[in-house]
Amino acid sequence: MVKLSISQSVAYNRNLKNVLPGGVHYSFRMPWESKQISLVRGRGSRVWDLDGNEYLDFFAKFGANILGHNNPEYNQALIDTLQRVSSANLGDIDAEAAEAVCAHIDSADMVRFSLSGTEAVQNALRLARGYTGRNRFVRFQGHYHGNADNTLGGRVGDLDHPVPEEDPGDLYSTEGKAAGVLKDQSFLIPWNDADLLESLLERSHEEIAALLMEPICINGGGLMPAAGYLERVRALCDRYGVVLIFDEVITGFRVGLGGAQRLLGVLPDLTTLGKAMAGGALPVSAIAGRREIMKLYENRKVVHGGTFNGYLLGLAAVKATIDLLARDGGRAYERMGEGMGRIHSALLGEAEKNGLALRMSGVPGAGVFSPAPSSADGPRAGMIAQYLGKMIGEAMTEHGILVSNANRLYGNISVDESDVELFQARVGDAFRQVGEFVAKMQGGPPAAAAATAS
Ligand code: PMP
């Protein structure tokens, strides 16, 4: 299957830019959004557009869709809730939803719900500041924590004094930020360097309320923590009275029921959750953490607002999602791991056949693939690899595979044998197209053709 006909999607999208800036809902474009594909139907790992084209959906709404599309049990739980009561400040599933989160997130005694990951992170920072009486937090290069001024972008010149300044070349650089917000609120340092962190905390702990990190850095390219790094981070936070926040908005309920913290065996003080926790159709985020810190909400020492916090439909989605994920001792994750593992292997195998050197990072449920920069490309190697990555994402779209930005593949628990087979066939076609293009640019035959000829 090659070259989709998308005339109906294009016609539908023609006027969209008049009412929706850029014709999209945010600034981080997916490879397939340039094609203006409008999706109207889904089942399992597949979605269909207005023209009836079928895609494998490993974009999964930025990783939120962990169940696959149209899961009957999940849908029924939402319908049942809607048919009972439209809105209520407290209903009869609040305890079940909160207990489900606390049962699986090992560091969580209590939880507060909100809507977006951005919001959960900001509230976690407020809690940490309230708890410690300090102002700054430490951020790490390559980690993403949402759309707020104080976590977006920045660079540091001097690692001995890592106060971030605006970086106009950064993907997250934006006009309109409150002045001084990066500089006044955070330090920004490289991740996975425990000695550097130790010296920063030694010098500046009296002004540091929190350390904020993705325990597996999916946004930075699917990076795992170095051996022993998180253990040292934990010990340093204990030594200097700093609140450790794991931002598990992507990894929570995606890399396993217990999130990255269980997988890696290190517990934070606070965890932010979102995306997959509510199954993909509805926005629910959460701050989960140690009782002593969460209790600051009880005596109103720290304020937490939000009209839709703990809305019933969202709590029903959380409860139904966690029930589905936890069934049969979490077998769903094993199945997703098997299926996505085979998909990752197919991707790497087909790339190699077509002369493309790709590497895969991350975990089966959230894999990131990227072209390895080639030393033959000299000083422009990084740029060329980045361009190639973009081209590969677009070719995959043209061959019916949707991936998230920065070439992420988000799996879901419904992925099955037929999805793996379809992926293999389509990715082969996509990579042949890219391989032929690259070979033409380099003036030689494509690797696959050369291999067949010899
Ligand atoms: N934290 C992490 C690790 C994320 O990946 C994201 C979103 N990609 C956020 C926070 C922000 O979540 P939201 O987009 O729901 O505000």
Description:
With 454 residues, the protein is of the alpha/beta class. It has 2 domains: 7-69 and 331-449, Aspartate Aminotransferase, domain 1, CATH 3.90.1150.10; 88-310, Type I PLP-dependent aspartate aminotransferase-like (Major domain) (Aspartate Aminotransferase, domain 2, 3-Layer(aba) Sandwich), CATH 3.40.640.10. Helix content is 41%, strand content 15%. The protein has 15 helices and 14 strands. It has helices spanning 7-13, 16-19, 60-63, 72-84, 94-104, 117-132, 181-185, 194-204, 229-240, 259-264, 291-294, 312-353, 381-398, 417-442, 447-453, and strands spanning 39-43, 46-49, 54-58, 110-114, 136-140, 186-189, 208-213, 243-247, 270-273, 285-289, 358-363, 366-371, 401-403, 408-410. The strands form 3 sheets. A 7-stranded mixed sheet has the order 4-10-9-8-7-5-6, sandwiched between helices. A hairpin with a 2-residue loop joins β1 (39-43) and β2. α5 packs parallel to α12, α8 runs parallel beside α9 and α12 crosses α14 (417-442). It is globular. The two termini are 27 Å apart. Residues 449-454 have low confidence and may be disordered. 4'-deoxy-4'-aminopyridoxal-5'-phosphate binds next to α6.
